[in-house]
Amino acid sequence: MTSDLFVGAAGFDRADLARVVPPTCLREVDLGMRATTDGGDTILDCGIWSPRRAASHLVPSFSAPADVVPASRVELSARADGAWSPWLATVTLGDAIFPELPTEAGGLRVDVDELRATRPVDAVRLRVRLRGALPRAWLATLSATDDAAPDLAPPPGTARLAVPPLSQLDEDPEIALRICSPTSVAMVLGYWGRAVTTAAVAADVLHAGTDRYGVWPAAIRAAAARGVAGYLLRFPDWASAAWCLVRALPIVASLRYAAGELDGAAIAATTGHLIVLTGYDDGMVLVNDPAAPTAATVPRRYRGSELSRAWLGGSGVGYVLFDPDRL
Q: Which domains does the chain have, with CATH numbers?
C-alpha cells in the first residue's frame, strides 16, 4: 500500500511537522496558503495535491488548536480519467449550517469521515470552510491511499509509552458502550498533560447529525479545543506506526475483528472500535483498550499478527495527536 499524507498549515514550521509525520507517508507540506471569504465563511484552499499512486481512499482532517475552535467542513474535488468531480462535502463539525453540497458525484462517495473513489483518482483539491474566527495556527491534512494490501508484519524491537489508562465502562451507562473514541482521546490528552474527563471529551466529540461518538475528524477537533494538534492517517504498515511510537507519539487506532480473531481482547468482536497503541515488544503490541472493565485492566498486550489484521487489515486509520508546544 502507498499512503500519502498531504499537509496544509499555518503557524507551524515545516521541520516541526516533519517530526510528527512518518517520512514514508509525508508527501507535501504547504505553508503558503491564503484565506479567502465566501459570504460569512472563511475558505482555506489547499490547491491541487497529487498522490504517488492513484488513490481510492481519502481521509481528510482539520486541526486548529485554540480556546475557541471554529465550526468547519472539509470539501473535496478529485480528478479521475482526466475529469474533475464536483465539490463534495464531508461532515460539518460545530454549530454551523453551510451551503449544501453533494456527498456523492463523479465517482466519489462520502462515507461520514472518509471518501471512497470508484475510479482511482490522480489529483485532489481540498478546501476547508470555516465559520468563526480563524485561529493563528491550523493544520489541514489529507491521507490518500491506493487499494494495495498493507504490510502486516509487526515491528521488531521495543517501544513503551506511559499513557494513563481510562475505561469507558466507568462512564454513564447510557453511553458507556459507545464512547471508545472519546475515551481513547482523553487518555492521549492526559499523556500530553491535558487531563480531562472522558465525559467532557464525549460531549465535544458527539456528532449530532449522525448521533455518533466515533466520527474521526470530530476527535481531532476535540483535541484541538484543548491545545493538542493532530491528523488522521491511514497507516500502510507497522514501520510507519513504529516510527510514531519510537518518537513518543501514541496512536489511536480504529479496529474491526470477528470473534476469535484478537486473543484476549476486551470485547469479543466489533465492527468498529478505537484503542490507543502505546508500544510494542517482541512481536506483541502494547495497547490501552478502553473497553476493559476497569482502568487497571485497560493496559493490554495483543499479538502483533492479530492486531495487524484487525487494524491495518481493516481501516488502518489512526489519530496522531501531538503537543505543538513540545515540537
A: 3-145 (2.60.120), 158-326 (3.90.70.10)
